[in-house]
Amino acid sequence: MKKKNAGFYLKIYGKILAQDLKSKMSYRADFIISTIGMIFTNISGFISFWILFKNFPSIAGWSYHEMLFLYGFSLVALTPVQCLFDNNWNLRGYVYSGDFIKYCFRPINIFFYYMSEVFDIKGLGQLAFGLGTIIYSWNRMGLDVSVLIILKMILFLITASLFMIALMNLAASTCFWMINTGYVMVIAFKFKDYSRYPGTIFNPVFRFIFTFIIPITFIAYYPSLVILRPDAVPALSWLSPVIGCLFFYLSYKVWMKGATGYNGTGS
Prior knowledge:
Order of helices and strands: HHEEHHHHHHHHH
Helix content: 55-70%
Number of strands: 2
Structural class: mainly alpha
Number of helices: 11
Strand order of the largest sheet: 1-2
């Protein structure tokens, strides 16, 4: 069988995405209500920060606008897992019902085929809110703007996204080997709430766990230091693109191992 190239997958993804969006647009009220709900959820997070910093001018040496930058950074970094990999939430149901077997017979990559079927357009509202928060905090802190800095920002946002995507891939893939794994997905997704805080606020034990075992500090803290504190960037920040790619690749291989070993019996 001839190996499919990137152009082939982009063409296929465009067609699948178009059909998915047409389907979603036929239920516009549901889309509008869900998007508004997403926006208000993010606004509540913004208000929480504002209330917190009315009483504490800084936390562990981080100012209000630096923390706000981390918050916006994490929202943008989490957008790809929200928009492009949301079908991970449905994996457990497909596996247990036996319906996942349909993905095993198409002559394309199973991971691509499965993930491409769902695009959660509500995540675009989160993206807009996150970008607005970054721009606001960036302006208030008076950070420099240049082509190089913008390119760094894009690179490290992509890097940050890889960590959350990988975390959710690993959590979802547990259903190939375990029963009743819904709680694993919920717990993994909850870790995103800690990603918006600087790693220095955690005690040494949790800092180690959130860096080397459950690497949520790479979702916002380490990548954002390249922009916020360019004169004192730790090695882990510069290494985060490599670590992110390796972590994503590991999650992909684990997910594929479960998918290719699936026998369709359900449970």
